[in-house]
């Protein structure tokens, strides 16, 4: 009886393995990567979130469980609410500039140009270049005493600009740098979307006498909607978490007017060793990013009364 049970058990195991062979192979491949992520990222991230419920200032201090006091302080302290607000609107501005410029670059890349492979590579070089290296180039341009821009202003008889003392110029250069670094990746994704639009729709639009604007509005934009959803979500998540640009270009100045939330978390965690507030701020930012992502995704897919071509004839263009 035992041998029969063993034989049946082995045969059923083999049958299950054959049926779920792909799933088993995927599990074998992914398990080491999952463990690697858990050890190096997952566990530290969860631990950082739990820190938000403790009062822990200084590595030699003893953590004191204080429930939601750090979160209450976050929303009462203008330092944190200001940093959060700057992260939101500055991230939105960077996202808008990056997407618009990336879309324009993608349209140029999609044109039948000679050497377009090299041309596309030029756009993508900033995305794969180290942030530390590229921000140092910007610092050379913006140096108060011997910067390229200030030397040019002096040569034409203008007063040099002390960039570090101007919040407006600081924000301007953060946006310019972020867009310059992100436009290549955005352009390639837009380009993939442009090339995936069914060409027969353009041919049908040509037969109907549609102009360039009509084809862009009624053919291209509806076809790009899935790509647009992805690129907006990923770009917004990245833009809200701006850090290196602020650190290397303005260092949060002047007087904290360009300090964003990730930079504030860095200061709390590694300068002031206020680990509890750093953990609370991290958890709040994670929740905001998740909520914003879900909201945008629901809005973009829920309004899927897609931009279909209307029943009325398209106006003829030039």
Write up this protein.
The chain is mainly alpha-helical. The protein has two domains: 1-51, no CATH class; 56-302, MetI-like (MetI-like fold, Orthogonal Bundle). Helix content is 74%, strand content 1%. The protein is built from 14 helices and two strands, in the order ααββαααααααααααα. The protein has helices at 2-19, 21-51, 69-76, 78-109, 116-128, 131-142, 148-155, 167-196, 199-207, 212-223, 225-240, 244-250, 261-271, 275-302, and strands spanning 54-55, 64-65. Strands 1-2 form a two-stranded antiparallel sheet. The longest helix has 32 residues, at 78-109. It is globular, with a radius of gyration of 26 Å.
Topology:
Layout: H1 2-19, H2 21-51, E1 54-55, E2 64-65, H3 69-76, H4 78-109, H5 116-128, H6 131-142, H7 148-155, H8 167-196, H9 199-207, H10 212-223, H11 225-240, H12 244-250, H13 261-271, H14 275-302
Antiparallel strand pairs: 1-2
Helix pairs in contact: 2-14, 4-8, 4-11, 4-13, 5-8, 6-12, 8-11, 8-12, 11-14, 13-14
Number of domains: 2
Task: Work out the helix count.
Answer: 14
Q: What letter string, H or E per element, gives the SSE order?
A: HHEEHHHHHHHHHHHH
The fraction of residues in strands falls at under 5%
| CATH topology label of the largest domain | MetI-like fold
What's the overall average pLDDT, rounded?
81
Helix content: over 70%
Low-confidence stretches: 305-318
What name goes with the CATH superfamily of the largest domain?
Answer: MetI-like
**CATH C-level category of the largest domain:** Mainly Alpha
First CA to last CA: what distance?
86 Å
- Describe the biggest sheet? 2 strands, antiparallel
Outline type: globular
- Largest beta sheet: what is the strand line-up? 1-2
Rg? 26 Å
Total strand count, please? 2
The helix-and-strand class reads mainly alpha
The name of the CATH architecture of the largest domain is Orthogonal Bundle
Membrane topology: Multi-pass membrane protein
Main location: membrane
Transmembrane segments: 23-54, 88-109, 121-142, 162-180, 227-243, 275-297
Keywords: Cell membrane, Membrane, Transmembrane, Transmembrane helix, Transport
């Amino acid at each position: 009886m035992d041998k029969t049970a063993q034989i049946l058990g082995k045969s059923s195991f083999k049958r299950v393995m054959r049926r779920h062979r792909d799933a088993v192979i995927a599990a074998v491949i992914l398990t080491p990567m999952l463990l690697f992520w858990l050890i190096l990222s997952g566990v530290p991230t969860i631990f950082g979130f739990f820190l938000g419920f403790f009062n822990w200032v200084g590595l030699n201090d003893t953590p004191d469980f204080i429930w939601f006091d750090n979160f209450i302080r976050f929303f009462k302290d203008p330092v944190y609410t200001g940093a959060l607000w700057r992260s939101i609107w500055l991230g939105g501005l960077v996202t808008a500039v990056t997407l618009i410029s990336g879309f324009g670059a993608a349209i140029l890349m999609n044109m039948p140009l000679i050497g377009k492979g090299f041309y596309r590579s030029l756009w993508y070089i900033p995305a794969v270049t180290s942030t530390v290296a590229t921000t140092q180039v910007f610092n050379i341009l913006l140096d108060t005493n011997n910067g390229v821009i200030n030397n040019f202003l002096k040569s034409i008889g203008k007063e040099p600009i002390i960039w570090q003392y101007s919040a407006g110029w600081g924000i301007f250069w953060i946006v310019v740098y972020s867009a310059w670094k992100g436009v290549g990746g955005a352009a390639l994704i837009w380009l993939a979307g442009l090339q995936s639009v069914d060409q027969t729709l353009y041919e049908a639009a040509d037969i109907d006498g549609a102009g360039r604007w009509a084809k862009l509005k009624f053919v291209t934009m509806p076809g790009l909607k899935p790509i647009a959803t992805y690129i907006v979500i990923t770009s917004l998540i990245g833009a809200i978490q701006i850090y290196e640009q602020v650190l290397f270009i303005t260092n949060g100045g002047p007087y904290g007017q360009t300090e964003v939330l990730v930079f504030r978390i860095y200061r709390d965690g590694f300068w002031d060793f206020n680990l509890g507030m750093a953990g609370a701020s991290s958890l709040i930012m994670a929740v905001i990013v998740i909520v914003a992502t879900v909201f945008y995704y629901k809005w973009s897919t829920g309004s899927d009364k897609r931009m279909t071509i209307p029943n009325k004839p398209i106006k003829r263009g030039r």
